[in-house]
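Let's do one together. I've listed all components of the complex below, 1133 residues spread over three lines.
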Amino acid sequence: MEVALAEVSKSFGAVRALREVSLTLTPGRAHALLGENGAGKSTLIKVLAGVHRPDGGQLLVDGEPTRFASPADAKAAGVAVIYQEPTLFGDLSVAENVAMGRHPTRRGGMVDTAAMREQAELLFERLGVDIDPKRPARGLSIADQQLVEIAKALSSDARVIIMDEPTAALSGTEVARLFGVVGALREHGAAVLFVSHRIDEVFELCQDATVLRDGGFVWSGPLSEQTPDGVVRLMVGRDLDALFPKQDVEAGDTALEVRRLTREGVFTDVSFDVRAGEILALAGLVGAGRSEIARAVFGVDKPDGGEVLVRGKRIRPGSPGAAMAAGIGFVPEDRRQQGLVLAASIERNAALASLNRLSRLGFLRSSAERSLARDWAVKLQLKFSRLTDPVGVLSGGNQQKVVLAKWLSRQPKILIVDEPTRGIDVGTKAEVHRLLSELAAQGVAILMISSELPEVLGMADRVLVVREGRLVGEFSRAEADEERIVLAATGVAAG
Amino acid sequence: MKSLLRWESALAVLLVLVVVVGSAATGGIFLTGRGAFNVGSDLAVMALIALPLTLVIVAAEIDLSVASVLGLSSALMGALWNEGWPLEAILPVVIIVGALCGAVNGFLVTKLGLPSLAVTIGSLALYRGLAFVVLGDQAVADFPDSYTQFGTTPVPGTWIPYPILLFAVLAVVFGLLLHATTFGRAVFAIGANEEAARFSGIRVKRIKFILFVLTGAVAALAGIVYTLRFASARADNGTGLELEVVTAVLLGGVSIFGGRGTIGGVILAALVLGGLTDALIVDDIATEVVKLVTGLLLLASVFAPAVTQRMSRGTP
Amino acid sequence: MAVTAIRELGILIALAVVVAVTTIVNPLFLSGQGIRDLLLNACLVALLTVGQTMVVITRNVDLSVGSVLGLSAFVTADTFAVNPVLAVVVGIVVGALCGLFNGALVGLGKVPSLVVTLGTLSVFRGLDFMWAHGRQINAANLPDGFLALGSGSVLGIPYLVIITLIVLGIVALHLGSYRSGRELYAIGSNPEAAVLAGIPVGRRVFTTFLLSGTIAGLAGVLAVARYGTVDATVGNGLELQVISAVVVGGVAIFGGSGTVAGAALGALLLSTIGSALEVVHIAQFWQQAITGALLIGAIALDRSVALRVAARMRRQSRGVSA
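Okay, and this is what the predicted structure of the assembly comes out as:
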């Protein structure tokens, strides 16, 4: 079965998530979908999965224009999606998760539990993995959950299998096992769409590729026509060096000290310092524990052990209020869920972290709130029509500016930024980078988490690499290069 | 904001309609001083509880145990009076017990992370049960006139019931608390996106806990008002009142999903609901039919936003 | 699986303790008649828990069951004058219509079932009062054959118990061994994933409300047979006992797990406690308080167990790979 998109577009309100994208998935071939965060990959996957209906263009199955009105339609047509966040039913057994929706039945329609288990066992055997079909899905590792998802896809005889960044959270051996599985799927004549950030991986596994940038279509064709460098250039679409203008700043005193911070099962024994004027980057794979470290430093999560000191003074663990009082600001990873109250206005969002400073005897001074928002909107060149508009109508880049305004208005001495430029357009990205650089120049200590290596290499004075919850490498700006970081982050040499 | 204003204007129109139709149906009794006094006295109890509950629902939680706290406070009042306590000592004790009831709800919701729906269905049964344990099925009716006058006579020289005066004061307090203070701003943020609120340094759990305690205390206060109004302390006082209170809040334009709503809207809704109830009862329609109408209003008020949203999505 | 078995064992032990203590006080508690009374008292609530379990498994709740039972009971009793068979059918149909109304509102409006059924709780009760108009129907107005359904037995087992067990068996089989039943667990366990898996979530949720209403209708018919006297207040407040029984019986309030057998045991435990209070001369008033306390205790217990399991798994997951 061949599935193709022809000039497909999709918008959400004012945001054009996909613009006239075309690609063809061919049986027996693995197709890579490439692009930076926010390029539109997830939207494209959801169109293929029947979650989103395209606004324009066509979906073709074996050349016939088709509409997937629901995920059920896509599933029935033989399209299976393995999402980044596995979609298992934690309360149910692994075997039942595999069978859900197509349980084997005996005469009379009763579910045949024995056959269900047998089916799961056979599939796991075929995938070469050892998972007990009788155990509940809750508590499986991410890698095992993905394998269950793949078994699910196989059991439904999917002819097109879409994998959304399946390797992001996997260790070296798990990745190797997954690649074996994908190879076997291709041999059985399935078409695979594979989303990944790791270019080396893509060249190892895939025959074709499509590149997206900012929702637009850039290139699609056989990978044999491309080099890894060429693909990166297509993805980024600009000269790398110009975008990351971190100025050299003489680092000042130590602003933030993290001592033996531990959260059981998440990260262990993490210690580092950040000095005033310095940008320290935490690099590593998705799921390595970087964001969790940041959350514990800020106090959103309570660590099980260790301490955080600001200019030598220990701050109360597990209390964002205490961290804020000590001068820490936190621009979180998930802007829409953690950074903003989307339904609330721009000014309310901008003021949300400063409520106490904007009040007298507990009463909020709305004029102060408004002027705070207005000042920062000007300083950060926010594009908006009214400050009373809900922040949800802004573009990703402008939303991020509101989050930045929320924290910068508190004049933090230490700023933690988690994926500061995820999903925002190139222009705003450059503005954010310039802003971070200026803050550092003013003596702010910055802890940055980023999954984009060019960003890490361009911005950071120092890079710490996190793997499986531990710090495994430290590189100065001079030492840091892509290969060393990837090696430290994965424990495997880069392609 | 704009849609909320439209909602409140609709409520105001509805209120005028209720008054006009109610007066016509009752031969004008509605518009007399005595009629207004009765309507006001009847709706004050429900309206009082609606105030703190508005904050709870804006924070995306719910408290179904309010009517049982009312019953418990009424029963406790009766039992302590039987023991010979003076009312001056009984009243603060009753309010503290109500606050404790709210604290138990708040503890279970914020410390153990249990859903407030399940917790307060449980405490609805628990507190009502305790009310019966405290007072059994007797009625205590020998409270001194000097106190029951609070519920049975108007403010001298007017037809304003004292409970409405109390409600007006608390309405201003809760209105300011929700709309003019940092606390209120935090309540809205919690209801709209609890995680973002937490990431902004807002002490989500503490605020929710305070809201449950406030609700318990005001429900107990409403129990006192109820007892004085009918000069009768009984364990089954106010049974099922949670329906009316929740209806008033949702009819007032507060979103059941949290993050949206105004005290003004809830005040209007309480007047509409109270007026409607009295118009129906004056007209000799059984109280249970009033419940039917209340139930329909509740359904209408949660469906109206869903329907209008769907329609506005159809024509962007 | 193992977890629910442990829960059911726990309830049985609690049941045994209650019965043992009460029997020491009054040996008649465990006589043949005593046991029959215990089962009979538990029947109506147990029947309602069967429907409620299905609803709660899908992460919803039906607060209107007590009112549906009441409405169905009165309509049934009234229709007897016309035709007894018709009366039974009408009672069940009334319940089904109420369930249909709930299901349609929950499914169509994307409004939380809590609010919808809080509304219909009073709407159905109001209809009941309008229909009854202050009347009361007594056993004298009902045919003896029908009343025998409420008090009679075969081989010493009351008809009511048999009917309850049949309904329970059918639903247990459906939930355990049929695709559409298994899908209810999937919906409650992870609603978003259920949509992605192509499960018709709206239709399934609609059906659970329909069935919950229908079963409440049947319970209304049986309530008439059991009590003989019917007015508009029958079943008032019953929803509290039902939800409490379901949760005490191990059905997760967050959906996704639990069995009808556990829920029915929960109902048996609650009603046995009620009977025991009577026997040991503790005021009946305590029963409601105990119902509420058990409900809160059960969800608190479930929650703390779930948290502990999650914490252990978190530790293990990194422990292995590190």
